Amino acid sequence: MTQAPGGGTAGRWAKRDASVVWHGFTQMSSYLDDAPVVVERAEGHELIDVDGNRYLDAISSLWVNTVGHRVPELDEALRRQLDLVAHSTMLGNTNRVVVEFAEALASVVPVDRPHVLFASDGAAAVEQALRIAFQLWANRGVEGRTSYLAFGGAYHGDTVGALSVGAGGFGTEVFDPLRFPVLRAPGFDDPSCLDVAAAMVAEHAHELAAVVVEPLVQGAAGMQMAGPEGFCELAEVCRRHEVLLICDEVATGFGRTGTLFASEQCGLRPDLLCLGKGITGGYLPLSAAVAAGHVFDAFLGPDPSPRTLHHGHSYGGNALAAAVALRHLQLLEERRVLANVGVRSAQLARLLSAGVAPLPGVGDIRVKGLMVGIDLDPPGPAMRWGRRVCAAAVRRGVLLRPLGDVVVLMPPLTVTAGEIERIVAVLGQAIAEVTAS
């Protein structure tokens, strides 16, 4: 068993950390009590703390790592770009490697005549898509198309617009006065959610700028999943009523669900596609809102023009991030990573069904590609089983993080058969430990 984090050198670093760093989604009054892992370096799929303890990164460093840490090809791409230029503005100018990556991305996204607007994180990509959808109708001279339809359980990020189309939770209620109202279809835990959403689009098309949806998997909702078949009807209703379709693939993109983009499994070609997280393989912050050609065309006009998209980020299209992202996209193909996702997903589902599902306190288990949610059913709401199970797994050398009482597994796409066995074995031990106490 790995030495409990928080002791030795790690304990001293954690105290230094707590005195100067404010961690997101973390109650800082109990931060040190939860024995945080203090990472110093990494190898392959493992993180190594300042005391030399190793942890299998079974959450892909919060869903961003795809092909492991310290990947030689990605390291080399970063070094090569450092010898050229680290960053130059994309506002009215461009950068060669950013163009190369945008071309490579445009050749694989399920978007017609794509144009890429870069930012640095998923929430910013969603915010860009919302603003583009809103302004498109103004540019066309259409009044009243100012609302959005989103889903229960949705999470699209923490900026104000992204919070608004998100369904709340995670303590966001305090910001309700800042959030704009949206039409809300049921979440993916309701089998009728897509049918209801399609009916709502037909009824409210005259006021809708866009529909915002996470294809196949609502990650932050605890890995709630919807089958691909219902998305085609939603897309058809959007097309029929000229409502834009925004697919948020920040979490599902770049192979997580078994195809490069989840939209492919749903037969979707969205008007706007939001990307982030795995786009650079977990190396550097980068995100993108990919707009279809007919959306991009709505912003063309004389210069100066009110049709211009007056929106951009200082580090949007960072050259270092683009260089790594380009090499990462190539690696996914070279290493046949998606084939590994399919095989490991089937193995993971099989092992979870045999070794975890029968355990006391375990409810539903949901698997799509390498996105997994395991419901725990504690006898009381304040027992924090999710956090305690993940802490027990960390003590055994497998890094996990819960969503309430849902344990989330999100291993790297290049995870091995042996590592899958290790993750499931440790998870079973951790659940048994917590439920027995």
Describe what you observe in this structure.
Helix 4 (96-106) packs parallel to helix 11 (319-334), helix 7 (193-204) runs parallel beside helix 8 (229-240) and helix 12 runs parallel beside helix 14. The chain has helices at residues 8-20, 60-63, 72-82, 96-106, 122-139, 160-165, 193-204, 229-240, 262-266, 293-297, 319-334, 337-355, 385-395, 417-436, and strands at 39-43, 46-49, 54-57, 115-119, 147-151, 183-185, 208-213, 217-218, 224-225, 244-248, 272-275, 287-291, 362-368, 371-376, 398-399, 401-403, 406-409. It is globular and about 65 Å long. It starts with 7 loop residues before the first helix and ends with a helix. The protein is built from 14 helices and 17 strands. With 437 residues, the protein is an alpha/beta fold. The mean pLDDT is 96. The strands form four sheets. The protein has a seven-stranded mixed sheet with strand order 4-12-11-10-7-5-6, sandwiched between helices. It has a four-stranded mixed sheet with strand order 1-2-3-15. It has two domains: 8-67 and 336-436, Aspartate Aminotransferase, domain 1, CATH 3.90.1150; 72-334, Aspartate Aminotransferase, domain 2 (3-Layer(aba) Sandwich), CATH 3.40.640.10.
